[in-house]
Amino acid sequence: MQQPPLRWIWEHKKYGTFPYNMDELVTILNDIHVMKRMLDNILSIYAENVVDEVQIENVTEEIYDNSRIEGEHLERESIRNSMAKAINKNYAQSHGISTKHTDALVDLLMESRENNKPITLSRLHNWHRGVFIHTRTNYKRSQEDKIIFGRFRDKEVRVIEELFGRGGHRTRYLAPPPETLEEDVKRFLHYCNYTQEDPYIKAAIAHLWFVSIHPYDDGNGRISRAVSDHILAHETKEQYKTYSISSGIYMKHADYYGILSETTDLYRNRHFDFTPWIKWHLQITFAAIKKSLKESTFIIERGQFWEKHQVFNLNDRESKTINTMFDALSKGKIESFSTKEYMLEHGVSRSTTRRDINALVDANMLAKVECESERYPRYILKTDETSDLEMLSLTKAKGVKRETNCLISETRNTNPSSPSPHEENTPYTHESKPSQR
Q1: CA-CA distance, 122 to 366, in Å (whole number)?
Q2: What is the CATH number of the domain that holds 133?
Q3: Contact partners, residue 157, CB within 8 Å, separation at least 6
Q4: What is the pLDDT of residue 166?
Q5: Which of 7, 123, 204, 220 has the most CB atoms lying inside 10 A of its own CB?
Q6: How far is CA 184 from the centre of its chain?
Q7: Domain-embedded: residue 1
């Protein structure tokens, strides 16, 4: 009786090897190594606290977009807050911004990078627990559909695609049977821990291999990217997390799922060739490093801004406002807000709003601007980029572009050592400032 044709890469007799054409990868590999050296050289000249700021930003983006790839939406400020606590153990935890879930995700990522010991089955299971332990993933799931944290699946898994407009669905991928999982993962871990390979190629293969095994009920994509991160941190001797591959993948997540499908389906990958997948992953890595190189200059400027104003003890509303405006500035927008918008955003009274805004203006952090078509003044972040401008166009906090001429008013108090006027009168002031990062 004739055997049915092989469909999935794990059915191929050479599964566990991932052949590729090195000639097609040399150029992009060289570009990655050059770009990474440039990034490392730039960061090497700055103080540790400035590099910490770069790392906080990239870890935040990595976790935020890593979760978004899988359809989970987290709060950026919660992740940033969790990362600040991970770096600064003396950080005051009274803000209530971070959650146990984001704390666990930061712990997972940092452990995967800082622990250079070989990855074991136990360590993988701990990572998996870290992804789900503080979530409501199993809420309202039937007993049969509940995810088992920190243990390999015990049932068949298919990746299904709905056929919209035609009804029904089709199988995009069928994972290996449960009884082979432990042996498959052991082979995978041996490759990750002991095989000599260019680290960027190795990270790409490890990512694909783990996803193709699909050993857990859920969370395989996030664990695969943690493994890739471990490989890059360990084998390139990265001391800091300075770029985010997950952010690059999220920006092209449709392409990501497309090329995964093309690579793991033998009907489409007839020659068992993994060059296209590796090349795609390398291009994403290169773009991530290039983006980080561009943004690091801005992050360093923001770090210097906070260092310049470190004598001021800001409350959480003020810190969030400044960080939001810096985020807009990093995208090339000069964001502004009015007194009314500040009140609505933070849910505070007019007197509290005026006290907050006056404190930021007196600290030389905000500039007051008078606009021709505005009845009331607006406020912008005061940096080197904006302080030299007399007339400028503003972007409202709502994201509405304004083509209106605005004149920057003189700052009320130019003495940077003067404490903000609300420091003795408001319960929101505090001494530690990692949330400002």
Answers
A1: 50
A2: 1.10.3290.10
A3: 174, 175, 214, 217
A4: 67
A5: 204
A6: 29
A7: no
pLDDT at residue 330 tops 50: yes
Rg (CA), the chain: 25
Does the predicted model carry a pTM greater than 0.85?
A: no
Token duo for residue 196 = 């000599």
Show Cβ contacts of residue 176 under 8 Å, excluding neighbours closer than 6 positions.
Answer: 10, 184, 212, 213, 214
pLDDT digits (tens, 9 = 90+) for 408-427: 454 444 443 433 333 333 32
DSSP-derived letter for residue 230 is: H
CB-based burial label for 268 (10 Å; 0-12, 13-18, 19+): exposed
How does DSSP assign 317-352, residue by residue? HHHHHHHHHHHHHHTT--EEE-HHHHHHHHT--HHH
Strands (E), 293-434: 335-337, 366-371, 378-381, 391-392, 395-396, 406-408
Residues 107, 84, 428, 98: what is their CA dihedral angle, to the nearest 10 degrees?
Answer: -30
Residue 162, pLDDT score: 75
**Pair 290, 371 in one domain:** no
> What is the rounded CA–CA span in Å between residue 292 and residue 298?
10
Residues 208 and 331 in one domain: no
Structurally, how many domains does the chain consist of?
2
Residue 169 sits in the same domain as residue 204: yes
Last residue of a domain, one of 299, 328, 347: 299
Give the confidence band of 77 by pLDDT, cuts at 50, 70, 90. Answer: confident
Report whether 420 contacts 362 (CB < 8 A).
yes
Q: What is the domain extent for residue 425? A: 315-436
Residue 347 and residue 250 in one domain: no
| CB-CB contact of 39 with 218 (8 Å) | no
The β-bridge partners of 322 are none
Record the tokens describing residue 380, joined without a space: 């912008």
343 within 8 A of 350, measured Cβ to Cβ: yes
Say how many CA atoms lie within 13 Å of 216 toward its Cβ: 24
Contact of 257 with 265, CB cutoff 8 Å: no
Q: What token pair was written down for 331?
A: 């995208």
